[in-house]
Amino acid sequence: EPANFLDVGGGAKAAVVRSALAIVLRIPRVKSVLINIFGGITRCDDIARGLVEARTKLNLSVPLVVRLIGTNEEEAKALLAQHNIRTYPTMREAISQVVAIANQ
User: Fold this and answer.
1) SS3 category, 67
2) DSSP 98
């Protein structure tokens, strides 16, 4: 059962993503975070930078499950891979992973 839902809106930058994760992670029952980005206005590389910053600055202890498609997608995936944040090519695969984590 999802603990929360958050829409960062179009054009979100790295700082917004980092702040959004900080809010979501205040909920004690969060076991993982599913990030699904369909970026037209929102650049995927900006989202990726925010996720990397959040992982470092917030000392994340929950797994991030990421699926992103759109503007600067390849740059975003490369950045996330450099920081050992796995991306999933489809929403179905991302959801399967986040459910598997929740059921552990």
Assistant:
1) strand
2) H
Q: Which residues pair with 38 in a beta bridge?
A: 69
The span from the CA of 2 to the CA of 38, in Å, is: 20
Report helix, strand or coil for 66: strand
23 vs 31: CA distance, rounded Å: 14
14-102 fold = Rossmann fold (3.40.50)
Per-domain boundaries in the chain: 14-102
Q: Is 65 helix (H, G, I), strand (E, B) or coil?
A: strand
> What's the pLDDT tens digit per position in 30-67?
888 999 988 778 899 999 999 999 998 988 888 999 99
Percent of the chain with pLDDT over 70: 98
- What are the Cα distances from residue 23, in Å, to 17, 46, 58, 66? 10, 18, 11, 18
Distance CA 6, CA 22 (A): 11
